[in-house]
Each structure stands twice: as C-alpha cells, then as structure tokens.
Design brief:
alpha/beta; Rossmann fold; 6-stranded mixed beta sheet; 19% strand
Length: 229
C-alpha cells in the first residue's frame, strides 16, 4: 500500500535522550513528525490528535500485552483503535515489547497495517529496525515492501499484521510455532516425533490461511495456547 503522505505521529513517553536519534532520523528523511515526547499523558495525547490526521502512528516505549505505557498508565488497545480512527491512520508501528496482541486488535478493528513485536526487544534493535523501515518506506512507498526490507534477521522479533478478511491470527500462531520449534531443537533434540507434529501443524495452518478460511475466536484461542502463548 502506498502511504498517503509522510505525516507521522511519534509517541515517545518518558524516552529522554534515548529517543533523539530515532526522532532526528525521521526529520532527516523528510518526514514531518508530530513528536509527543516526555510527559505523555492520555489527556495530552488526545489533545494533540484533536482534528488532526496522521497516516502513520509510531510508538516507541514500554508495553505489555494489555497496552502501551504512557506517563499516567497503560493505554489499552481499544483506546489505540479510537486514536487510529480519529487520525485516519493506515499504519501503526508499535515499537515496544510483545505488542502483537495489541496489533491484532488494531487490524481487526480499523487499521490497515500494524508492525509489532512477538517478544522482548532490545532498545538498539528497536531503534535500528524503525530507522531501516522508514528509510525503506521513502524508497518503496509501500508498507509491506518496506517491512520486508527492514525486518531484523532475528526470527520471531517483529511481525507485520494486515487488516482485511484474511485470518491474521494465523500469522501469530505460525510465529509462535516457529519459536516453539526452535526452542525444542535447542533443548531437546530427542523428541523427533513431537517436532514432526509441529511441522505438520504449521503446514495445516498454512493451507487454511492460503485457502482464505476463517476460524472462530475460541478455536484460535485454543491453537494459540498450543503454540506456546
């Protein structure tokens, strides 16, 4: 997808000097970010976005599976959906730890694309990934292409979720199965039959995904539990 513009909302609560290189690089690339940095409360954030549109929302900071950390507490996924709708955003980049579940809510409810993480990521990796992505986006003007050019070689760190009819939760399941398989290989190579079962499960999920089928929330929850949630 071609971005509408380079308008970007950069949310970096309590980041201090650590966020400056990432923010400076955005200006250098030609973006026009509205930077919300330092003491970022829920009230301040909603004041900033009032009657404004941002094609991209970028968050850099701490996160949990329940939400992103602002200065006055967690901002949950439902509130992020509200912000994305208000800003008419096409992409939300959640550059915090384990943000995939929040990203899934976003693409299910409104946002066309969400870049998020499947595990804890170091600050250096997060900063470098963001810088490479926005550099690639300038060249490609395409979210998917830019992501593919910039994602780190560390498997299971980042994922791109895409809104629409496709069953995106399967992406999370497959990513988790990849991680679980790698763990088993490293720690218990004798369980060959179990590893074969994981491979068969992944193949089955891919066939479901390629066939365009959907699955109920209960079934997805059960499969994600198996996959090592």
């Amino acid at each position: 997808m071609k971005p509408d513009s380079r308008t970007l909302l950069d949310i970096a609560p309590d980041a201090g000097q650590a966020a400056l290189p990432e923010i400076d690089s955005l200006f250098a690339l030609g973006y026009a970010p509205q930077v919300v940095q330092g003491e970022v409360t829920r009230e301040r954030l909603f004041q900033v976005i009032r009657n404004r549109e941002f094609s991209i929302i970028h968050y850099a900071g701490h996160a949990t599976r329940d939400g992103i950390a602002l200065s006055d507490g967690l901002l949950d996924a439902a509130s992020l959906v509200q912000i994305a709708r208000s800003c008419n955003s096409s992409l939300v980049f959640l550059n915090g730890c384990e943000t995939a579940e929040i990203g899934q809510v976003l693409v299910d409810e409104h946002v066309s694309y969400a870049i998020c993480t499947l595990r804890n990521v170091q600050d250096t990796l997060a900063r470098e990934t963001a810088q490479l992505f926005y550099q690639a986006l300038i060249r490609t003007e395409d979210f998917q292409a830019a992501y593919n050019m910039s994602k780190p070689p560390i498997k299971g760190a980042y994922t791109l979720l895409i809104g629409g009819p496709q069953p995106q939760s399967l992406v999370l399941i497959l990513e988790r199965l990849d991680k679980f398989e790698a763990f088993m290989i490293r720690n218990d190579q004798e369980h060959v039959d179990f590893l074969k079962a994981i491979l068969a499960m992944k193949t089955w999920f891919w066939r479901i995904s390629l066939g365009g089928l959907t699955m109920t929330g209960a079934a997805l929850g059960f499969l994600m539990l198996i996959a090592g949630r």
